[in-house]
């Protein structure tokens, strides 16, 4: 279990830099293009280790496996991460980070129904305290931001929760490396198809007054230059490669509910990184929220009931 907590901390630190990095290139690169590039890099990096893991487990991938990876890739890469990137465009990066971090609120009930993971009192207390912390950081009575970005961030959190639980269903069969790698690559195949379709004349005609320009003529390579290549590599190698790897390794060593505390630590770290890197100030509400979130994460970590069957 100690290894799971190490993976959780590593994933939380990496994921806490995701919005900052994405925001720096959001104005120059299409959201779908950004997803395609970062997860292509992440998938390629993990491919050698994935092939070795498949060989070590003597797994012969069949049609059902391919369908499964297309499903996880569609949920996690095409849907959730696209909602995430669009949310970055319409509201502050710190707001997206906080809302996205609430996805464990959805992970726990979804895991309860799909994985039959039991929920004890400590888990419920942890979720309640951490969610209260998120609400303090958002400060709903004083927040002034674009509602479109908030809605997109909420949709991203819900679909990522579903992606996490569906991935947990077969993580024992494939291993966390394989789950990450093939979900990334399968999601990229779907993204590439959608990007190519966006160049059809039909979309260009329909664009006028009916569809956002971001969905038309989506570039694949153009727009990448020396000023943003380093950020793209960071998002691909560190965030998409190592970050997701540590997250699923934590899930593999524990449960979907325990691993999800990554996203309760993240909103505590993200504002601090914004303060250090972007020089954003922390409000009193944010500081209170950070304390509550860390308290919720501590409660979850101190819960050892899963050893006696609290989690399946």
From TrEMBL:
Q: Which residues form the EamA domain?
A: 3-138, 147-301
Q: Coiled coil: which residue ranges?
A: none
Q: Which UniProt keywords apply?
A: Membrane, Transmembrane, Transmembrane helix
The membrane topology of this protein is: Multi-pass membrane protein
- What is the protein named? EamA domain-containing protein
Q: Where are the transmembrane segments?
A: 36-54, 66-90, 96-115, 122-143, 149-166, 178-197, 229-249, 256-278, 284-301
Q: Where in the cell is it found?
A: Membrane
For this chain, the family text in UniProt reads: Belongs to the EamA transporter family.
Give the organism, scientific name: Sporomusa silvacetica DSM 10669
Q: What is its main location?
A: membrane
